[in-house]
Amino acid sequence: MTITISTASQLRLLARKHAHTAIATVFGILTSEKVAPNVRLSAAAMLMDRGFGRVPLMTPSEVAEAGLRITEIVNTIVDPKVNDGAPMLLNEAGAVDQLDAPDPVPASDDAISEEQ
């Protein structure tokens, strides 16, 4: 089967005609455990972009003009076994408490004096 497309309008019409099948295909990739995780992640990003729009990117000068600055970086480890792997909303009842990192071991005075 050969499809001839000569204008952008024809391309849009063809894409819209097959949109349901395309979305179902991407959703199938997203939910299949047989598909590699990086491919599933790409499918998830694709659906989120189509459903909510892409996040606008700011140039460094726009960030400076807006007066934005990074004040905290948080590294969170998520246990996939919690809640049967289903995502949880922030502040949701039953959410697992975050574990604190151990305190760094302070340098002892003996080690410092031995070096001198």
Provide the descriptors you would attach to this structure in a database record.
116 residues, mainly alpha
Quaternary class: single chain
State the low-pLDDT regions, or none: none
Helix share, percent: 40-55%
Q: Ends: how far apart?
A: 82 Å
Principal-axes geometry comes out as flat
Rg calc = 25 Å
Protein architecture, described:
It is a single chain. With 116 residues, this protein is an all-alpha fold. It has a domain at 8-88. Helix content is 46%, strand content 0%. The protein has helices spanning 8-17, 19-31, 37-52, 60-66, 109-115. Helix 2 (19-31) packs across helix 3. It is flat. It starts with 7 loop residues before the first helix and ends with a helix.
Task: Set out the fold topology.
Blueprint: H1 8-17, H2 19-31, H3 37-52, H4 60-66, H5 109-115
Helix pairs in contact: 2-3
